[in-house]
Amino acid sequence: MSNNNIKINKCLFPAAGYGTRFLPATKAIPKEMLPVLTKPLLQYGVEEAIEAGMDTMAIVTGRGKRAIEDHFDRSYELEHQIDGTSKENLMHEIRNIVDNYTFSYTRQVEMKGLGHAILTGQTLIGNEPFAVILADDLCDNEGESVLSQMTKLYEKYPDSCIVAIEEIPREHTNKYGVISGIEIEDNLFKVDNMIEKPEPQDAPSNLAIIGRYILIPEIFDVIKTTKPGKGGEIQITDALLTLAKQGKVLAYKFSGKRFDCGSVDGFVEATNYFYNKQK
Ligand code: G1P
Q1: Mutate-to-test residue for ligand 1 from 31, 114, 137, 167, highest number of ligand atoms within 8 A of CB
Q2: Full-model pTM
């Protein structure tokens, strides 16, 4: 990877999953479109990517996800109806996004895991470093967004992948990718091991990966040779372990809050948090 290609322009959003934990809400609506207050989860992610300087959103969708494409598009009839009314400002943010940023899509035909979803997005990313946001990990920070913090770090370490981590209670390790490593700067670890969803007794630490990644394009070839792991799926954690063994993965303990909006509890917590914040 050459050091002159350190600006990250593209953000990949894996968004093909079924969202079974939110049935029946997700029967006809993609889970990424569930709103926290009035904004869909995916829009929060897109805004975070924009804040981190990205201009192209690469979305890996699947069957039943057309609402995502419609959301990031003009809606002439609706806009015509509310133009000049008090409701107009409700559409301001999304209109600004649609008018100024690029969205591209590809479909993951079979659900074979997060690693496979990311590989499916290769056609949208090409041969450049990119970010990944899992929209159901909703992040907020008073200062710089989590992804901005990570892109800054990437400028310093342009040959590495970076994963966001947070400390979790030991008994929850089987819900996350878990890393271990050596702290090389405050809150920054050089990863020496990572395991997808280990039982607490097998976990290398209590530092869990959350849904923010910066990946170097080399990852695509590594994913292609990564065997199915946990749950019979191609795991990004396993692919990253290959690069970690070459000293190419950093883990960053970010500043800010993160809500697991893939669970009902986390979703309610996020809703209360953002409601109180906007009051
Ligand atoms: C995925 C990753 C896992 C990571 C988590 C963060 O799991 O496989 O390593 O810790 O996202 O949310 P999922 O939540 O999709 O099962």
Answers
A1: 114
A2: 0.96
